Amino acid sequence: MLANMIYDFRKELQTLGYCRKVINTYPKYAQKLLEYTRETPQRITDTHIKNYYGHLQTQPSRATKKVISQSHLYSQLLAIKLYFDYLERIKSIKRNPYNLKIKHAAKTERKIFTQKEIKLLYKSCQNNIERAILHLCYSCGLRQNEAELLNIKDVNLEQKLLFVRKGKGKKRRVIPFTETIAKDLKDFLKDIEIIRKENQESFLINTNGYRMKGLNIYNLFKRLIGRTQNLKPENYCLHSLRHSIATHLLENEMSIEMVRDFLGHSQLSTTQIYTRTSNLKLKQ
After folding, report:
1. Rg (CA), the chain
2. Dihedral, CA of residue 82, residue 83, residue 85 and residue 88, to nearest 10
């Protein structure tokens, strides 16, 4: 019964048009609350939720092993709120127990790499998988989940085009890349051909021959930073590469409109957040 309710919540998120990440994670966040309280949704009270909030504040992040970030904490609480809003809407509960007033954590400016530091990262690569991750997440500006979902058919090595078929907000885009990148990606595919499982269409695969998960990509990137002189892993995340390429393209005089299309943004204002250049003049 409980599993059905969580599944129905997932379908509701799909119907409302939420992104893939929310659809996959928010039902899990709601389920964790129910597992923690060992109560049915109908018996959950505001006290249960407040106690669980206190519990979350002590939990370590899978990626950093430190206490989870405020933004992650906010996402989990938002998932719980949406879950009980949904149950109230379908009249599965008589009263909505969620009454926490939690503000979204203020976003801190993300640290980016200089063009010199990017060159150092490439020099620190010890294998083709690390180089491939840099090419995808820096040179092609892919988000972590876009790199995870990338399939072999999405990378045309002959025409040197990469196709993002399911970007954020269901936006599709085509990204050109250089001959050097094409060669490196081709070498990477040759390296992993022997371990790739039959019918495994993912571009990035793990040592077991299956699709590489986002956390694996993140951890490989962190280890690469750790080997790079004068760079501290705790100062950067994988998304720093995406911010960096946006800034570097603008520094090399690409128009902000072209950078917006390259990154797959709907609004120009979103692209501006990704930049670190000053005196940037928008085309009228």
Report:
1. 21
2. 170
Pick the CATH number of 2-89 from 1.10.150, 1.10.340, 1.10.1060, 1.10.260: 1.10.150
Mean pLDDT of 127-150: 94
Summarize the confidence of residues 61-66 as an average pLDDT: 70
CATH no. for 115-273: 1.10.443.10
Cα 113 to chain centroid distance, Å, stands at 18
pLDDT tens-digit map of 86-117: 999 999 998 999 998 876 655 556 688 999 99
pTM above 0.70, yes or no: no
At 282, is the pLDDT very low, low, confident or very high (cuts 50, 70, 90)? very low
Q: Which SS3 state, helix, strand or coil, does residue 196 take?
A: coil
Catalytic residues: 143, 168, 239, 242, 265, 274
pLDDT at res. 280: 43
Query: In the chain, what are the domain boundaries?
Result: 2-89, 115-273
> Can you name the residues that pair with 163 across neighbouring β-strands?
174
